[in-house]
Write a structure and sequence with these properties.
By secondary structure, the protein is mainly α. It is built from 11 helices and 3 strands, in the order H-H-H-H-H-H-H-H-H-H-E-E-E-H. Strands 1-2-3 form a 3-stranded antiparallel sheet, covered by helices on one side.
């Protein structure tokens, strides 16, 4: 099946052991695991994406460039790329983890993709790794970046509350449900001890942002806050 993966990557390994290691999760207990390659691939991916964003020559500020890169290398996005190339079926997991459906868990897929990029780098050098990144991220790298510069509602809310009351919003997870590979979180945010917003998402971070967005709209309308 690795032949199909190589086809999806657009790269043929000269030393297959690099790819074998990249596909070995720690739960498999069968040879070197992919954590070291994941570390390397993270750096390769970040540099490749940064170079491509910069080469577009668009007049984005440094903070905006960082947001664009973050949007392209976050866990959920990398997991989506991994699913497109059917990487989950290639990752070697322990029997229990495979049975539990962890081959479709965002964190495992994202880590495996980074490990594969690290393996490409070791096997063929940076140019080869950059080629694979360009191939996998082509649509996003060639499309508009404006939508990736998302507002940080938590920061905006905190700035308002600090300015007006020298205090900080408080966040709390009030519900957590779903299987391990598809968790759903509900978070509420309180300002001065009063609930101002509630939001849900696949991560605590996204749920907190959703709650902050609602709270921000509310406090901006309140004259007394």
């Amino acid at each position: 099946m690795t032949v199909l993966l190589e086809t999806a990557l657009g790269y043929k390994f000269q030393r297959r052991e690099f790819l074998d290691e990249a596909l070995c999760h720690s739960s498999a207990l069968a040879g070197p695991v992919n954590e070291r390659l994941e570390f390397l691939g993270d750096a390769v991916l970040s540099l490749s994406i940064s170079g491509r964003i910069f080469s577009r020559g668009e007049n984005f500020k440094e903070g905006e460039l960082s947001k664009i890169r973050a949007a392209l290398v976050n866990e959920a996005f990398l997991a989506g790329i991994a699913r497109k190339i059917k990487l989950g079926g290639e990752v070697r997991l322990g029997h229990g983890e495979r049975k539990a459906g962890l081959d479709d868990q965002d964190s495992i897929l994202a880590d495996a993709l980074e490990a594969v990029l690290g393996a490409v780098y070791l096997d063929g050098g940076f140019d080869a790794a950059r080629f694979v990144v360009d191939r996998l991220f082509q649509d996003e790298l060639e499309g508009p970046f404006d939508q990736m510069i998302a507002r940080d509602f938590k920061t905006e809310l905190q700035e308002i509350v600090q300015e007006r009351h020298k205090s900080r919003p408080e966040y709390a997870v009030v519900d957590e449900s779903g299987p391990p590979h598809a968790r759903s979180f509900t978070v509420v945010v309180k300002v001065l001890g009063i609930e101002h917003g509630s939001g849900s998402g696949g991560t605590k971070k996204s749920a907190s942002q959703a709650a902050a967005k609602i709270a921000l709209a509310k406090v901006q309308l309140e004259k007394t806050l």
